[in-house]
Amino acid sequence: MSLKRTAFFAIHTWLGAKIVEFGGYEMPVKYTSIIEEHKRVREYVGVFDVSHMGEVEIQGKNALEFLQKITVNDASKLTEGGVQYSAMCYDDGGIVDDLLVYHLGDRYMLVLNASNTAKDIAWIKQHVSGDVTVRDVGDATSLLALQGPRSLDVLRKLTGEDLLSLQYYHCRWGTLAGVQMLISRTGYTGELGFELYFPSDVKTGEKVWNAVMEAGKEFQIAPIGLGARDTLRLEMGYCLYGHDIDATTNPLEAGLGWITKPAKGEFIGCEAIRRLQQGGLKRKLAGFVLGDKGFPRQGYGLRYNGTEIGKVTSGTFSPTLGKGIGMGYIRKDLAVTGTPLRVALRSNEAPATVVPLPFVKKL
């Protein structure tokens, strides 16, 4: 099957980005270096093409009732313009995907992980009941994420919308760079940031991209690849599907109990989650920092007193901290600040210490 391309593919190649396959798309992993791009977002502002993410609209008289059934968070708390981080679970409590739920007034929009989109949509449609319409709008939607402390300064040059009043995890429709779009105060970097949803065609995409880059020149804007997106999210302790969460993990052990609301009523997976709440968790997702040089990778063993107690789910070199950081599932009694671990690197072991998340304090 041929790989898809976003409306910005020609721009990425013109800029000399390193292109890789991700989620069925040809996507830029970096333009210069991951560390340089990471620091640009932390210190100034960067723009990400994340048009590979999936978007699905849920509409109909029973749309809210349906969302309450398939997601773990309480969607009834959303008002128009609100955005909610949530997840979908299987009957056994394993995670189908984590996602965003947008309340757009007459409908809801779900934003799904790129590599899960086809699977998620099939699972969603499998559970439809009542007056509910599910519409895949991913191919028709471009998505740019503007992230960093100067992101607001850039966008205020391009729109008359009062973005200063747009609260975190809220969105509104507006015109930006002459294009009608959904402007969302969201992102996965821990920085001040916005995500822009607009029609997916090359002409519109290039118009928005060029306007954003021109407006951002004085704020040292730069294009950012998926490599830095990963290191930025890991510094914040944010989970990545396929690494830190998947069908074999549940929201409680993944540290996502704050978005999991069994009290709202029945939803898929709620009985399993209630049993976990009552019976106690055996393991938890913990963050750790290496004490020596080197950095952990997914799959590396985590050891305590000479015994392997888990594996690294995500690991990298933190450009902000200047040391290796990672996350992994370990015994609940060991998932406390200060627990000494050993990380099995390629040819040796490195000392590590369990630390509270996030690794970097931002928002």
Characterise this structure:
The chain is α+β, with helices and mostly antiparallel strands and 363 residues long. Among the domains are: 9-53 and 139-234, 2-Layer Sandwich (Gyrase A, domain 2), CATH 3.30.1360; 54-136, Alpha-Beta Plaits (2-Layer Sandwich). Helices cover 20% and strands 33% of the residues. It has 8 helices and 19 strands. It has helices at 9-14, 34-43, 63-70, 117-126, 151-156, 202-215, 226-235, 270-279, and strands spanning 18-22, 25-30, 46-49, 54-59, 83-89, 95-103, 108-112, 133-136, 141-147, 171-176, 179-184, 193-199, 222-224, 283-290, 301-304, 307-318, 323-331, 340-344, 349-355. The chain has a 6-stranded mixed sheet, sandwiched between helices. Strand 5 and strand 6 form a beta hairpin. The two termini are 40 Å apart.
Quick recap of the structure?
With 363 residues, the chain is of the alpha+beta class. The protein contains 8 helices and 19 strands. Helix 2 (34-43) crosses helix 7.
Which characteristics define this entry?
363 residues; Gyrase A, domain 2; six-stranded mixed β-sheet; six-stranded antiparallel beta barrel; 33% strand
